[in-house]
C-alpha cells in the first residue's frame, strides 16, 4: 500500500510540474545594483519607460493591442477658445492618435484613459463639455475603431492653475499585467 501511494504521489508531482505558464513575462526592465546589494529586489510590473511626445507607444488593453501617440500639448489654447467659467483656469488640449493593432477586432476608444499629471495635485481628467470652439478635429468621446484603423484628434482639459508635468495614459485594469500607466513629460 505504501508503495502504491508513493507512486501516485510521484506521478501527481510530475503531472503538475508541467502545468505552468510557458509565456515570457510581459513587463521588462533593466536594473543595476551596487556591489554587495541584495539580488532579491525586483522592478514592479507597472514600471514603464517615459515615452516622448510624437513617438508611438504600444499598449496592451484588455481587448487587444493599441498604439498611442501624443503629438503635442497646448496651453493656453489659441483664440477663439471659450473663456473658462472659473477664475484662474485655462483651457489646454492634447493632440492624440490611437491605432488599433489587431487584424479584425473592433476596439472602443475614447478620452477616458488620458489625464494631465501635476507635481502637487491629483491627475486631471479630460474636460467633458467641449464645443466647436476647441481645437479640431476633436478626439471622439467613444469610438468603435476597426482593426488596423487609427483615429486622431484633440482632447481638451480645464486646467485649474499652473502647468502639468505630464500627460498620462492608463491602461484598463483588465489589461494583461493589471494595467500600466505611461506618462509623457510636458516641457
UniProtKB/TrEMBL annotation:
Which residue intervals are annotated with compositional bias (Low complexity) in the record?
Answer: 25-42
Annotated region described as Disordered, given as residue ranges: 19-42, 168-187
Q: Which protein, by its recorded name, is this?
A: DUF4352 domain-containing protein
Query: What species does this protein belong to?
Result: Virgisporangium aliadipatigenens
Amino acid at each position: 500500500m505504501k508503495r502504491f501511494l508513493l507512486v501516485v504521489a510521484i506521478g501527481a508531482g510530475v503531472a503538475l510540474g508541467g502545468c505552468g505558464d510557458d509565456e515570457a513575462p510581459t513587463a521588462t526592465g533593466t536594473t543595476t545594483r551596487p556591489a554587495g546589494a541584495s539580488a532579491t529586489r525586483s522592478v514592479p510590473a507597472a514600471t514603464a519607460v517615459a515615452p516622448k511626445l510624437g513617438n508611438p507607444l504600444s499598449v496592451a488593453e484588455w481587448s487587444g493591442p493599441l498604439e498611442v501617440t501624443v503629438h503635442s500639448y497646448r496651453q493656453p489654447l489659441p483664440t477663439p477658445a471659450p473663456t473658462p467659467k472659473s477664475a484662474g483656469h485655462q483651457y489646454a488640449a492634447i493632440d492624440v492618435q490611437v491605432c488599433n493593432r489587431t487584424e479584425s477586432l473592433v476596439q472602443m476608444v475614447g478620452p477616458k484613459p488620458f489625464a494631465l499629471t501635476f507635481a502637487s495635485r491629483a491627475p486631471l481628467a479630460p474636460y467633458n463639455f467641449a464645443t466647436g470652439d476647441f481645437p479640431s478635429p476633436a478626439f471622439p468621446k467613444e469610438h468603435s475603431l476597426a482593426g488596423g484603423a487609427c483615429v486622431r484628434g484633440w482632447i481638451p482639459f480645464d486646467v485649474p492653475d499652473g502647468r502639468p508635468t505630464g500627460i498620462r495614459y492608463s491602461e484598463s485594469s483588465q489589461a494583461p499585467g493589471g494595467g500600466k500607466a505611461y506618462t509623457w513629460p510636458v516641457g
